[in-house]
Amino acid sequence: MVWQTIWGQIVDLSLVAVLLRLMTPILLASLGGLISDIGGVINIGLEGLMLMSAFTSIAVGSSTGNWAVGVLAGVATSVLISYGMGFFSLKMKVDIIITGFAVNIFGSGFTIFLMSKIYGMTGNYSPTGAPRIPVVNIPFIEDIPVLGKLLSGHSLMVWIALLSVAFCMFLIYRTPYGVHLRSVGEAPYAAQSLGIPAKRIQYSALAWSGAFAGLAGAFMSNGLTNMFVKDMTAGTGFLALAVVLLGNRNPIGILLGSLIFGLASALATIVQTVPNSPIPSQFIQMIPYVVTIAALVFFALRNKRRLATMP
Amino acid sequence: MPILLEMKNIHKVYPNGTAANRGVDLTVHEGEIHALVGENGAGKSTLMKILFGLEAPTDGTIEYKGQTVTFDGPRDAIKQGMGMVHQHFMLAPSLTVSENIVLGDEPKKGVFSMFRDRAKEFKEVEHLISTYGLKVNMQAKVESIPVGQKQRVEILKVLYRGAKLIILDEPTAVLTPQETDELFDSIKALVSQGHTIIFITHKLREVMQISNRITVLRAGKSIATLLTQETNQEEISRLMVGRDVLFRVDKIPAEPKDVVLAVRDLGALDDKGTLALKGVSFTIRGGEVLGIAGVEGNGQTELVEVITGLRKATTGEVRYQDKDLLAASVAEIRRMKVGHVPEDRQTAGASLTSSIAENLILDHYRNPDFKWGPFINKKKVKQFAKVMMDTFDVRAQNEETMAGALSGGNLQKVVVARELSKNPLLLIASQPTRGVDIGAIEFIHREIIKRRDGGAAVMVVSAELSEVMALSDRIIVLYDGEIVALLDNTPDLTEQEIGYYMLGIKKQELEATR
Ligand SMILES: Nc1ncnc2c1ncn2[C@@H]1O[C@H](COP(=O)(O)OP(=O)(O)OP(=O)(O)O)[C@@H](O)[C@H]1O
Ligand SMILES: [Mg+2]
């Protein structure tokens, strides 16, 4: 029964659609994590940033009736907070890991606080008629049998996420900024001795991570669902950090890592919808996390083997 | 020759109170190679950092090309045509050679110059490389090239920015003799193309070989400027240290006792996974010094790492007294009275963000003498650190100074002090005097011999053949991962003889090396 359902969805390609949708938040968040990591200021606070953005974006989106304004507001909030992280860590010299944790705690607590203060809700807030991030239907192609299902009908944010991979490739490897970013993260003194403004670059790296985390969060409340649920990110921000390592710290690797995660989530979602499934749903919900842990262990072992001859 | 640079009455007091420069005058002529010498901590690097705008002088003036200049940062100095190659490499390891060379000044293209113009980057770097004959693979990642080439990348970096006056801070400290010769060829080529060089080194032989004039610093003051032709090593060292320096170690003949370390058939891979040690066998007895000679990269690093537990062996065995070292962890080995002075003090020898005192007890903190119940007895540690700094002449503000703020040579002394203070039964010293001034070399050599006379087995690995010959009772030569010679260090053994083995021109029968 379960296998038949999965097989059926693979054949009619709806698995692909689910996979892409579920992959998007983690892909965007990982790209944010990547840029901050490359710049030597790894952003542990992705989770908190996503929550803040998710809340802001649906709140602003539903009150203005415009999804784009909502998303922009969410991203702006996230960027602003990550700039604040820069202030504390780069200027006041608080350890970046601690700042990140603070943002996570703040993000979770503050969104719940605002939800109850503004809307009087404690668990979730689902405004009626809140505008969603639109779905892109490509004319003509949507009518072609296989291609149509593969390419058409995805959320705009799915495309933005995929384009972001290419964008990051360019940014990191093809622009002077990217080279500066890498040098600052790896050899800050060397960079400084050549007149590269290391602090400013690290600020910008944090801002980028905020922007991507913001997009990821906005998609969760305004695309994937149409509401805000407390702690709705459920660890996505942390999984994103794992994906950064898994993807060997480059955008293409991260895309592959996110695909693995997306696939695991998609399978879990499908299995959950099967009526009378013999497997308890809690187990199924574990799948993505188990997959991530397994992948990380694999990654660690591979690295260990490579390092075996080194001190 | 016209005067290019005049630094007058330079003073520098660091925020922590160290007076590193206390009235230095330095005059550099256009087109000369000017050597700057002085003991560890004499203020050479500080003076150059001031010149390059990395540190602001507390007092004094700098005149460059006849004009008084003040630099707010290295950018200003670079604009004026100065370039500096730092004592410790300033390269981003995962970037390529050409990316490192143009870093911060990349050729750009596109709208708003948004993109890197890689074609132009390659062309310009290519042009630089061929103009100055500094051969290096520009597409390779910096982490994968040897030290000598990294040095060239540093010089190319400086040339790319159009430097006329080039400061080289101890460029030869990490180079093999061969690489040093190549560097000197490049330096001469630079001078013939109109560049001026300021050159810092502790090796007086190099000073005599390449410089035109010499300025000697002592304790933060410039005490003499000499013409190289009119002076000699003895005079320079007397000016540097303030007394006569012995260039040879006085030592009584060794009295070898029982075998302490027995290495048999040892094999190991290098980082790239190729065989770096191909069945090496030797023994060291208590009370003798075994020197390991060889051109760098012929298995010395791997040999030391295997014995000290940092690298896995693929074949063979290492017995220390009656214990099997290959089965022991690094921590266990260190607890067995094995001392190890690693070749890279910056990454393996010291914790740069810890204080001198902390670095000195890194290995002793379990020792009950330094403890107070489960806690560390700060007072005892402090006392101990004071004594060590005194005996080893570590020049720093006090024992709380961060190791990272020490001059290169003083940091080395801290590492050596720690390793010798545990009274090792087996001492493995890799490049024990790299970057250390001549007075301190004399001292460290004497200390090593003292340990030998106390019955310790000592293994010395050094890129300096003279050092190996000065210390060793027996010498083995490593070539391509094999022992090609085992020699008794008798007075009639010459550097030339060893050189033949090092280059693989001569080779002893296998049996003779056992
Ligand atoms: N950033 C710093 N902060 C505080 N003190 C410093 C700093 N850098 C150097 N010093 C101190 O200033 C003195 C001079 O150091 P400097 O590095 O100029 O010596 P040096 O002549 O280059 O020695 P070496 O030959 O060992 O490299 C030393 O006592 C050193 O401990
Ligand atoms: Mg120095």
TrEMBL record, chain A:
InterPro entries: ABC_transp_permease (IPR001851). It comes from the Bacteria. CDD domains: TM_PBP1_transp_TpRbsC_like (cd06580). The chain crosses the membrane at residues 6-29, 41-61, 67-90, 97-119, 156-173, 227-246, 253-271, 283-301. Keywords: Cell membrane, Membrane, Transmembrane, Transmembrane helix. PANTHER family: ABC TRANSPORTER PERMEASE PROTEIN, SUGAR ABC TRANSPORTER INTEGRAL MEMBRANE PROTEIN-RELATED. This is ABC transporter permease.
UniProtKB/TrEMBL annotation, chain B:
PROSITE patterns: ABC_TRANSPORTER_1, ABC_TRANSPORTER_2. Residues 5-244, 261-505 form the ABC transporter domain. Coiled coil: none annotated. The keyword ATP-binding applies. SMART domains: AAA. SUPFAM superfamilies: P-loop containing nucleoside triphosphate hydrolases (SSF52540). The keyword ATP-binding applies. This is ABC transporter ATP-binding protein. Keywords: ATP-binding, Nucleotide-binding. CDD domains: ABC_Carb_Monos_I, ABC_Carb_Monos_II. Pfam families: ABC_tran. PANTHER family: CARBOHYDRATE TRANSPORT ATP-BINDING PROTEIN MG119-RELATED (PTHR43790), GUANOSINE IMPORT ATP-BINDING PROTEIN NUPO (PTHR43790:SF4). InterPro entries: AAA+_ATPase, ABC_carbohydrate_import_ATPase, ABC_transporter-like_ATP-bd, ABC_transporter-like_CS, P-loop_NTPase. GO terms for molecular function: ATP binding.
